């Protein structure tokens, strides 16, 4: 049985804990590897060595750090297919979706090549007689990233790129479900010229997370995962004086207005709702058609599209629409929630409960489901299902529709489909949600803007990637310098305002 270990000081580090986690092939249900879980002592060792390595890396000028990012981009592109195969085999994503996962992370690394510009401070000449003032952005030191299973390439790249380009060392604790790609990325960074110890990949469970949160050396932690854990990490990090940037769950609504192109909206809902088996924090899981006529016409278009979806392993070809969910427990939870929707009175229009893939009976595949006449009191509406389940909530008016999205406890992403510019503008201005799509189903910002949700979808003051990432991973130091000229004056004992 293959064993997967850690990456510490630029090489594979075999853990000595004796504790392992199973890494499954989601398509077959078989264990394909054993993942070593770190002890607190091993995590502390990785942090200590990272702190030592960060001193020289932080003193390296930003342009040289950016050149490492530039070479990293080239190496990721060189090994794109190898990375995507490893990602698909552990996560279950289709091969094109796995490449998309890597590509969206790669775009953040490309943005980080501009670190010299993003790290520039400010300067004021002659703020007072012979006095200049300037600010500097300096790295925090050692920071940590705790990343989820559903994007095993993209989100580690979102974390490590800005952190490293800003001059920090990073401790990355990836998901135990699909750990291989983060380790492969660490190897590529070493090949790109990153000094040993600046990026440490330490695999672990809650014990490792708590070791990160308790470490007095680690200055900041970034997390993506479920809301309860995001809140736990945020509160515990804040209690120990760390910066925290924690992103949690989602329940993303798409409002479909009567004037929308319903064929376009139906295509968007199928891709956004069922892509990656619904295991996306930006998946659309609630469709809100305005008016019964709109709802009936939308359902009529959705049903044949959903029934034609091809579900299978990534090895079945690029025409597979989505693969298995990540674990058997995830599959069982999805089916439990589907049953709750039936029990609570929702209309199951497309029933995927009996889906069975010949030759992969033990895999974690879940058929597509479509609910109609869902109400806000139902579990399938309130809960993030994280599976291929789309719920339709009928609204009588635009005000009722926007109210549904605004009243929900999650505020990650949302979308509206309409041909009316006034409606779209009102929606974008009023909605209390972090990322908004107008005739765009999955409004994930590009790398030079920031990504982040509101309400219980995000904890912390700054978002991921874009300019916010460099603000998060640096602290500002402001210097007031005086170089007197002319006659030297004696000491002053009063604090005077600048002349």
UniProtKB/TrEMBL annotation:
Q: Which Pfam families match?
A: Aldedh
GO molecular-function term, one example from the UniProt record = methylmalonate-semialdehyde dehydrogenase (acylating, NAD) activity
Report the EC code(s) recorded for this entry: 1.2.1.27
Q: Which domain of life is it from?
A: Bacteria
Q: Which InterPro entries match?
A: Ald_DH/histidinol_DH, Ald_DH_C, Ald_DH_CS_CYS, Ald_DH_N, Aldehyde_DH_dom, MeMal-semiAld_DH
Where the record annotates domain Aldehyde dehydrogenase, the positions are 19-479
Its BP terms in the Gene Ontology are: L-valine catabolic process; thymine catabolic process
Check the record and name the PROSITE patterns matching this protein: ALDEHYDE_DEHYDR_CYS
Kindly indicate whether the keyword Oxidoreductase belongs to this entry: yes
Question: Which key words tag this protein in UniProt?
Answer: NAD, Oxidoreductase
Name of the featured protein: methylmalonate-semialdehyde dehydrogenase (CoA acylating)
Q: Which organism is it from?
A: Paracoccus subflavus
